[in-house]
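Annotated sample (chain length 301).
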Amino acid sequence: MAAETPAETFAPIEAGASLIIAFQVKGKRALIIGGGVVAAGRLSALLAAGAIVTLISPLDRLSPEVHHRIFVDPALEAYHDRLYAGEQDLDGFDMVLTAIDQPGLSSEICKICRARRIIVNVADVPPECDFYFGSIVRRGPLQIMVSTNGKGPRIANRVRRAIERQLPDNVADAIEGVGKLRGALRKRDNGGDVATIDRRMGFMIRVCDRWSLDELAAMDDQMREEVLDGYEDSVAKSYWDVRPGVLAFIASTLHLGRCPVYDSPDGRASRCPFVLSTSGFLLGLATAGVVAAARWHATSR
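Output written by the structure step:
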């Protein structure tokens, strides 16, 4: 009797999460009501994402950063030096963010926005937020958001700082290098059928799995072209395959450049158990040889 195949298991759904997405707001019209420190953070985030921003706040209530964004390095679509005037201020906007010290007014704005199907964020009031601003790590194209679902913003900042300390300095350059490689690959093979898309994706996966972040950051135009030359034959060339020089040739021929136990392109030889154990064995053998030679020398005198 054939053994039964064990049923596939899946992790249980853990309720209470937010849907973490990279929301594309480029070209969307956003209204910020308020001009203090909290509004400044909202403003910077929206401008960095390409939103078209209008801000309403009396001039004497603007934080230094908001004042700078309006008058020194203007990047807003419009600024109104006044208080919120009523529902008509919400006309034509895709999202509304309030950052004012008037809970009652903020709640009223939230109700109006939801009735009009405008997404809304009321600072420091999670139930009146359709989305949260998490603690963000930014390294060029890399963005990592830490969210506590509005329960512990201060803790989110600590987690963010811990993540920042672990990120390599050149991670942004590595990602830019991958982006250039993907763009060049699409120019070589721009087919939109499923087979072509799968082939391009598979090639990029194999290349990324063979290159460390340091190597991707160092990829220049010549190296990129040599990597792409392997696409037709489905050969994902490594850094050592395309780097010029005798050392690179030797490393490529002997398939060196990564730990043979932990098959990670970002692994360090100093942390590889194979290297450590081999080095330890050779060091022990050398030590034993020295001790034996010393004993022989002592007894032969």
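Annotation: Residues 56 and 80 are 5 Å apart (CA to CA).
Annotation: Strands lie at 29-33, 52-56, 78-80, 95-98, 119-122, 135-139, 142-146.
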